Amino acid sequence: MPAFDEMNGFGQCIRPAYRTIQAWFENSDPENLKRLQKEAEFLFRRIGITFAVYGDAEAEERIIPFDIVPRVLTGREWTSLSKGLTQRVTALNRFLADVYGAGEIIRAGVVPADLVYQNPAFRPEMVGLKLPHDVYVQIAGIDVIRTDDKDFYVLEDNARTPSGVSYMLENRDVQMRLFPDLFAETRIQPVDNYPDELLASLRSVAPISAPAEPTVVLMTPGPLNSAYYEHSFLADKLGVELVEGRDLFVLDEVVYMRTTRGPKRVDVIYRRIDDDFLDPMVFRPDSVLGIPGLISAYRAGNVTLANAVGTGVADDKAIYTYMPDIVRFYLGEEPILKNVPTWRCREPDSLRYVLDHLPELVVKEVQGSGGYGMLVGPKSTKEQIESFRAKLMADPDGFIAQPTLALSTSPTFVGDGIAPRHIDLRPFVLTGADKVRIVPGGLTRVALKEGSLVVNSSQGGGTKDTWIIEDPADDVASPSGLSQSQSQAGS
Amino acid sequence: MLSRHADSLYWLARYVERAENTARLLEAATRLSATPILAEGGRNEWEMAVDGTGTLDLFQQQHAEATQRTVVDYLAFSHANPSSIRNCLDIARANARSVRTALTMDMWETINSGWMETRGVNSPNLTRQELSNFLSRVKELSLRFDGSAYRTMLRNDAYYFLRLGTFIERADFTARVLALKADVLDPNRPSIGGSSDYFQWSWILRSVSALTSYHWVYRDNLKPNLVAEFLILKAEMPRSLVSCYENVTLNLDSLSRDYGRQGASQRKARMLLSQLQDTTLPGLFAIGLKEFLERFIIDNANLGNTIAEQYLG
Q: What's the complex ipTM?
């Protein structure tokens, strides 16, 4: 069966969300589209080089291809999705406050103790620490997909230092510059207030001891980091200093930055650097990127780190499988966003099933990331499957398995025309003291290779502008009935 | 602003200025190497170009002979010369990258695209035409950088630190070129006469691109005491020591006004400026031109250190 297509559904008709797009692209001269695609690349390269700033050859590698056909969701679809995201991230924060606090969810037997306390991402330094407003994950990137028009599934929670938001903003910029006509015909919710929302969230979680106008900084590992352009881009948009570890120092458990006017107190650090490198006195002693004494200032409650230390224990693949239970436990609600069905190989029944169905499953290492140490059953040879079977049997605790999903497709410009390609979506969820903020949209990633399900930029993935449009007037009455059940999704 | 950012801006400007100055030295050498006159003491124009950068010792450790090939390689491309044009541009760009948020888009694009364009040029066996193109591009980079800073930057501390770098580096360069030829500028020295003197004086002016403007200001032939006056005491000459120090003082004063606080840098700069302003041509030669310039080079470097201590630490 072909995958669900965001424009054509299962082939019955054009879905209302895509009507404008479809008409526009159908009436466009393919030569003109080619020209626009080229121009987009040029613009993006210029912006990309402007920010990415690698040498010639590298700069080209680092620029992620941009596709000119936007990905569209209706307001109705978005409302439901954003409710689900709010619910999910609220539960993630409650979970973190709990596992570093009373540990009720473990005592209740919902999540096994060893998965939390033996987890390499669990940070004993965080135990018993009270964070401002109990916010641990101020910035989350939740990767979602769907296989039909009903439900969104969460593929992965990113609760450490999720990246990609600069592409969300740049994509919109380029799209508006090249397709002014399309924007004149459609009302699209803006994303350019993201930096304001981010700053508001960060300020709201400043330490209680901070002044009314807290000083926020963005901390980067430095220009050699692959996401450096995003760090400098965001610092610029936020209007805050882009600092490295050597710009900061700790005196009497207070963090200061070295400025031309002398030391200046820092209240909130939006850090884009991993836990391990934050403070050589507590974590890796060989790290020169961090700030000696930072954790002592943190524990004294004199500085806020966003995200908090130790959030990795919540976005781990083993914990992922418990997320629906975690949502129910803390919020007493049914999860709005679904989990991809997952077999935990640590459980004997599941392991048996997985071993019997290896050729059709995707098996992942619990601690792995970026597609390493993974078996994609349908794309593997007999030998690969057998050697993986041995690995799996030697250490079942280290693996989970999932069915191979047919991610939805979206029309994509592929050189000589429009063709369907698989996509996912990473919305960015901001949590402040007062509320959860989600800019309508996110980063849509697309697998540009025909048939490919891998959207990662390292493996031929590209990005699209993501549109949240006003609900088409006839959406509910759409003859296909394909868009009707969105708001009840998942319940 | 962050001290590290101020430091990066200051050095960004210094290295861009240094790259331009080195390019001008190479242009002067190229030009003179096409004339038949030889300098006294067996020194050729290529060796003088190296000496103008103050690194003759380092050069002689690396090369037995100063020829077009060895000097162009050393001054333009060598990684073994910390102040080669290549190294200057690499360091300038690295600094620009680390203060990306403090630069305007125009400034960043100038540095980045200039760096990309010139990094492909590398052969020590360039033709004269290729060398000339390369040097033009380096000068253009510097001019565009200067112009885009002037036209697009906010007038705040970032701008002042950038300008301080430019003028401290420029003053250093002008003083070094003059010190190198202090003896031939001394009016009390017995003249060798003829074209050799003219060659020395015009080399000085060419190295700081001041030959034409000299004629506009003095409407006279080259005279050694006037060359010295022009490059040290004439405020209308933008590369003169007085002009550089007017600008250094101006930018330091702007900083202290913004920050509401004066410091050692402001005091030192004002002192140096008033010394320069109070100096007369006869006074200059009474002290001894060489002594005066060597003193100035040290004072200028000390001011750089004081600025670093006060703001960039």
A: 0.81
